[in-house]
């Protein structure tokens, strides 16, 4: 993921089909059990319906930005903080207050977003999650999606701590779901509950917890099942803290005229390949504003959308300028602090802040000297995002930017107390020394295998006359019997992702952190004879025994630059069309089975997910 001009231009110069169409017959073993009903379906990028509710301009920016609460532990026993959190259904005013509408939602602890869990590195936490949701889903469940058929309850949950170094039994594996009627635990008197144990043996950072149940992750997260999980050291109080440290969850939603959530119901033979809402929702409120003092603030920003990438920058509404704005000083990414401050904005090291699904950014913004001025956090990412530069609506007819404004920031509050926070660069030196003293996992120096995976967009014939148009990893369907890669605990591997599709894909690996070591463009070789699509079809038809070698059909270009705010510990990486991204993955912590997947939730639900298994080293 790069936000510099060199990378964006390299994407524009490539030519690749938007969609490679592959066919497979029901004869192949991949489709021995067809989880879909017998009708052709295809995936379409979808948005709000024609009757969806619009927010009148006069109601924008009328409500203050909500701040997520913080859960308190119910007990502390044996050095473990214990939490008790129920998933429930409730109503909440997401839309502007003047519209007089409330929205039915799901959430952890009865709020959307959920209250945050705040823990300290090295101090374990146990969370009992209770599924006390209704037995009928808030949204329409499409039984054609793998894992959501008639043999499974409509309402299932599997809580995943995104970015957590957790044992496999506590990772929120997609098939390890629980239901409110106690189907997986008939003896439960009040619905199903499950306790997850988080050792927190990792660096301080911004994690989040959300649902991960097979086949309905996109629905459960859209309904509201998400919250922050902050790993925090006391030394972080030397940064802006308390009222000046604000988690910011960026999402998009669509609403029916009565204020209820709108989401496609699958009644038109189309899967929602990606869904884009038409209303920006920040911390559970549509079009909010944030009143700030003229001093530094710390924003922990998370892209929690189903399918949308955000490309962000501040705009000065007072003097109609995108240059008279404070720089964002980025100090952290997904899984920890950066080595050095990365300035984001006009004249900075990076022009804009690019966040794909599930990515996080920890930034310091100093509003000193901007008294009385108003800023808007603008978004310049098109839908679907495909690697373009920041774009304003109407600037490029080929790029649809439908959500250009996310949050208004008003420097209207008086300075309540002197700012005693230290400079960001000084803090990074201090926290670096703290992290150097950690002894959570031994360093990994043993090289394992190099692996290459394709990101594919295909049409599969899953039964005679039944086409299934979706996205896949390495031409494979999700299955417990799928070919599973088996990295060895205590080794590191280089994984490369080759994006053959027309979309950018945020790829997330559970359990591990990784470093982005290379980005490289590629072009298709247009020759005679078979094509990659043809040979892929043969492979999926069972004509040939091995997956086609992508190297036979592409020419690798020179390396692209890696953005300076994309170099430290990551758990999610954005792979643009016609791009090969290589990440270096140390496998530490635990052996066992985990998953990796695209974090566009519609893609994840529709097969763009595979298991992998970390195996113990042999003697």
Description:
- There is one protein chain.
- This protein has 619 residues and is mainly beta.
- It has three domains: 216 residues, Cupredoxins -  blue copper proteins (Immunoglobulin-like, Sandwich); 183 residues, Immunoglobulin-like, CATH 2.60.40; 176 residues, Cupredoxins -  blue copper proteins (Immunoglobulin-like, Sandwich), CATH 2.60.40.
- The protein has five helices and 35 strands.
- Strands 12, 13, 15, 16, 18, 20, 21 and 23 form an eight-stranded mixed beta sheet that branches. A six-stranded mixed beta sheet has the order 2-17-25-24-19-22, with no helix packed on it.
- Strand 20 and strand 21 form a beta hairpin.
- The radius of gyration is 23 Å and the shape is globular.
- The chain starts with a helix and ends in a 5-residue tail after the last strand.
- The N terminus is likely disordered.
Mean pLDDT equals 88
CATH topology of the largest domain: Immunoglobulin-like
CATH H-level homologous superfamily name of the largest domain: Cupredoxins -  blue copper proteins
CATH class of the largest domain: Mainly Beta
Quaternary organisation:
single chain
Uncertain runs are 1-42, 185-190
Do you know the CATH architecture of the largest domain? Answer: Sandwich
Spell out the key features of this protein.
single chain, 619 residues, mainly beta, Immunoglobulin-like, 3 domains, 8-stranded mixed beta sheet, 6-stranded mixed beta sheet, 35 strands, globular, disordered N terminus
């Amino acid at each position: 993921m790069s936000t510099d001009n060199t990378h964006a231009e390299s994407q524009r110069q490539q030519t690749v089909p938007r969609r490679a169409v592959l066919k497979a017959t029901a004869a192949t073993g991949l489709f021995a059990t067809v989880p879909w009903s017998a009708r052709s379906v295809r995936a379409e990028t979808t948005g709000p319906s024609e009757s969806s509710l619009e927010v009148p301009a006069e109601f924008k920016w009328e409500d203050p930005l909500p701040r997520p609460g913080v859960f308190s532990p119910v007990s502390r026993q044996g050095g473990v903080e214990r939490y008790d959190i129920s998933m429930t259904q409730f109503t909440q005013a997401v839309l502007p207050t003047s519209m007089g509408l409330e929205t039915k939602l799901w959430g952890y602890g009865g709020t959307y977003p959920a209250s945050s869990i705040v823990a300290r590195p090295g101090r374990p936490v146990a969370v009992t999650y209770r599924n006390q949701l209704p037995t009928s889903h808030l949204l329409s469940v499409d039984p054609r999606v793998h894992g959501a058929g008639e043999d499974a309850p409509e309402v299932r949950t599997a809580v995943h701590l995104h970015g957590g170094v957790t044992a496999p039994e506590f990772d929120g594996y997609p098939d390890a779901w629980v239901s409110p009627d106690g189907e997986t635990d008939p003896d439960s008197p009040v619905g199903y509950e499950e306790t997850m144990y988080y050792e927190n043996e990792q660096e301080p950072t911004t994690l989040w917890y959300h649902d991960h149940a097979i086949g309905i992750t996109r629905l459960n997260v859209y309904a509201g099942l998400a919250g922050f999980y902050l790993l925090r050291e006391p030394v972080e109080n030397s940064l802006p803290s308390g009222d000046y440290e604000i988690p910011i969850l960026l999402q998009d939603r669509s609403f029916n005229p009565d204020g209820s959530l709108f989401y496609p119901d699958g009644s038109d033979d189309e899967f929602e390949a990606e869904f884009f809402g038409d209303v920006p929702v920040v911390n559970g409120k549509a079009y909010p504003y944030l009143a700030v003092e003229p001093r530094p603030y710390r924003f922990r920003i998370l892209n929690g959308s189903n399918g949308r990438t955000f490309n962000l920058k501040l705009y000065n509404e007072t003097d109609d300028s995108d240059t008279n704005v404070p720089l964002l000083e980025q100090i952290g990414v997904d899984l920890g602090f950066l080595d050095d401050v990365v300035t984001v904005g006009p004249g900075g090291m990076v022009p804009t802040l690019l966040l794909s699904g599930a990515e996080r950014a920890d930034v310091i913004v100093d509003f000193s000297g901007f008294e009385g001025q108003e800023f808007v956090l603008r978004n310049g990412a098109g839908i679907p995002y495909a690697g373009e530069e920041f774009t304003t609506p109407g600037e490029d007819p080929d790029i649809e930017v439908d959500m250009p404004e996310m949050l208004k920031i008003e420097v209207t509050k008086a300075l309540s107390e002197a700012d005693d926070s230290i400079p960001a660069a000084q803090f990074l030196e201090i926290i670096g020394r703290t992290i150097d003293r950690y002894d959570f996992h031994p360093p990994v120096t043993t090289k394992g295998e190099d692996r290459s995976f394709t990101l594919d967009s295909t049409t599969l014939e899953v039964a005679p006359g039944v086409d299934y148009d979706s996205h896949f990893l390495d031409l494979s369907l999700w299955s417990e019997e799928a070919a599973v890669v088996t990295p060895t605990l205590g080794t590191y591997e280089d994984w490369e992702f080759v994006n053959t599709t027309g979309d950018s894909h945020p790829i997330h690996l559970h359990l591990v952190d990784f470093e982005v070591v290379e980005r490289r463009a590629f072009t298709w070789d247009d020759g005679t004879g078979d094509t990659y699509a043809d040979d892929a079809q043969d492979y999926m038809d069972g004509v040939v025994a091995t997956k086609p070698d992508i190297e036979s059909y592409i020419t690798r270009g020179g390396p692209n630059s890696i953005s300076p705010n994309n170099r430290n510990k990551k758990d999610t990486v954005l792979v643009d069309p016609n791009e090969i991204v290589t990440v270096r993955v140390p496998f530490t912590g635990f052996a066992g089975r985990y998953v990796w997947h695209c974090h566009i939730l519609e893609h994840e639900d529709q097969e763009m997910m595979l298991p992998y298994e970390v195996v113990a080293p042999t003697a």
